[in-house]
């Protein structure tokens, strides 16, 4: 019997020898990737330490999770066990690209499981590699020597792209993001349903788009919700984020866990202030004359002026956020505010134009929350830690889960 492969999204497998900087590239890419890209944390039977921000598991915890089917893929390497949460399968079914640092020994298994497998090999010079192994401080001299001379477990497996990571982390991450953005995408929304945005029933992993809403050239993450009568054009809506009724978003990237109240407008398109007229007959010309074309250059300029909304944000009823604005992680925008300038992480802004009123968290706590990046935890981990989110304050939660 033939098992249908999981698609239409892609599994982007990052491979390369120890010390080439794979985890650093993934961590930097996570800061800049949109919600159509998933970069899950790995479950590893290794204590917290320098380097990768993984989810530490005891051997017993890992075995129980494995037997319960919590991992899509798992492998043994370096005396440790590695697992990738099964939730990535829903990401790929939703058209997202899932990016993971994997052992080359599992590439065959990945190719059998996923419709689109993209293999990216990361390399560096041997001198840089040895220096990075020494710097990260996870191995003694003997372990380093073994890693430097370990043979490739899949030497004949073809790769789709190669990144030479001798430069800066930013340069390497930019190269990785270019590869990721060339992988398959979902460009349409799930089917519309009529349930209320706050109605009974669970939000499915595929998300909900309510009646009367329009999603054009957009990407919707997992567990997202688009309220009745809303209009989204070229919008990336991150996992668990929602907008309530009659929102209007354009040319916008929204992070994960964003809470957008009704009648919010983000990325409102401009009219040409410097021309003789403000009217759109100049760029929507085909509506008025059969022999005239629309002004493609004008629309391209509009699309390039993207608004960015961070993770775990709250935008109040009737607020507006202008094009080119960046709203930091954890920020709050008060009802009716008009935001014309960037909003710092964890700031609360209000007014016309919006100004900082105060900060939700002290700077050192905000920085720790951003480093923790709990919004990247997988669905099962969030459920496991739900009670702590409900009962612990921010400091206690950080103390509990910081690497």
UniProtKB/TrEMBL annotation:
Pathway: Metabolic intermediate biosynthesis; 5-phospho-alpha-D-ribose 1-diphosphate biosynthesis; 5-phospho-alpha-D-ribose 1-diphosphate from D-ribose 5-phosphate (route II): step 3/3. It is an enzyme of class 2 (transferase). PANTHER family: ACETYLTRANSFERASE, ACETYLTRANSFERASE RV3034C-RELATED. Keywords: ATP-binding, Nucleotide-binding, Repeat, Transferase. Residues 31-56 are annotated as: Disordered. InterPro entries: Hexapep, Hexapep_transf_CS, P-loop_NTPase, PhnN, Phosphonate_tfrase_rpt, Trans_hexapeptide_repeat, Trimer_LpxA-like_sf. SUPFAM superfamilies: P-loop containing nucleoside triphosphate hydrolases, Trimeric LpxA-like enzymes. HAMAP family: PhnN (MF_00836). Catalyzes the phosphorylation of ribose 1,5-bisphosphate to 5-phospho-D-ribosyl alpha-1-diphosphate (PRPP). Its EC number is 2.7.4.23. It catalyses: alpha-D-ribose 1,5-bisphosphate + ATP = 5-phospho-alpha-D-ribose 1-diphosphate + ADP. This is Ribose 1,5-bisphosphate phosphokinase PhnN. Belongs to the ribose 1,5-bisphosphokinase family.
């Amino acid at each position: 019997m033939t098992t249908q492969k999981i698609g239409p999204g892609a599994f982007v497998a990052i491979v390369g020898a120890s010390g080439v900087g794979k985890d650093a590239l993934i961590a930097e890419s996570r800061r800049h990737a949109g919600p159509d890209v998933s970069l899950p944390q790995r479950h590893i039977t290794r204590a917290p330490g320098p380097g990768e921000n993984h989810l530490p598991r005891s051997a017993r915890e890992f075995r129980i999770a494995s037997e319960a089917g919590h991992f899509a893929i798992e492998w043994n390497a370096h005396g440790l066990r590695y697992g990738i949460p099964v939730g990535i399968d829903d990401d790929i079914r939703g058209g997202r690209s899932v990016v993971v640092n994997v052992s080359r020994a599992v590439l065959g298994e990945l190719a059998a499981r996923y419709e689109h497998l993209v293999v990216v090999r990361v390399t560096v010079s041997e001198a840089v590699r040895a220096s990075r192994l020494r710097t990260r401080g996870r191995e003694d001299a003997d372990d380093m020597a073994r890693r430097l001379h370990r043979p490739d477990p899949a030497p004949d497996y073809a790769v789709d792209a190669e990144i030479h990571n001798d430069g800066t982390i930013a340069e390497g991450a930019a190269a990785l993001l270019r590869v990721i953005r060339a992988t398959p995408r979902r460009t349409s929304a799930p089917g519309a349903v009529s349930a209320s945005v706050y109605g009974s029933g669970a939000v499915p992993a595929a998300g909900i788009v309510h009646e009367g809403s329009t999603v054009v050239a957009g990407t919707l993450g997992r567990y997202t919700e688009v309220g009745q009568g809303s209009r989204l054009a070229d919008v990336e809506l991150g996992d668990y984020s929602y907008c309530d009724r009659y929102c209007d978003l354009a040319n916008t990237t929204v992070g994960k866990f964003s809470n957008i109240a009704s009648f919010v407008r983000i990325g409102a398109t401009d009219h040409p202030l410097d021309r003789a007229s403000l009217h759109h007959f100049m760029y929507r010309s085909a509506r008025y004359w059969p022999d005239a074309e629309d002004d493609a250059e004008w629309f391209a300029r509009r699309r390039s002026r993207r608004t960015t909304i961070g993770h775990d944000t709250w935008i109040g009823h009737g607020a507006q956020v202008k094009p080119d604005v960046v709203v930091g992680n954890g920020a709050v925008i008060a009802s009716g505010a008009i935001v014309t300038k960037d909003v710092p992480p964890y700031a609360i802004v209000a007014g016309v134009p919006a100004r900082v009123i105060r900060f939700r968290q002290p700077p050192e706590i905000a920085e720790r929350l951003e480093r923790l990046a709990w919004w990247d935890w997988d669905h099962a981990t969030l459920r496991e830690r739900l009670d702590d989110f409900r009962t612990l304050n921010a400091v206690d939660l950080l103390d509990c889960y910081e690497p």
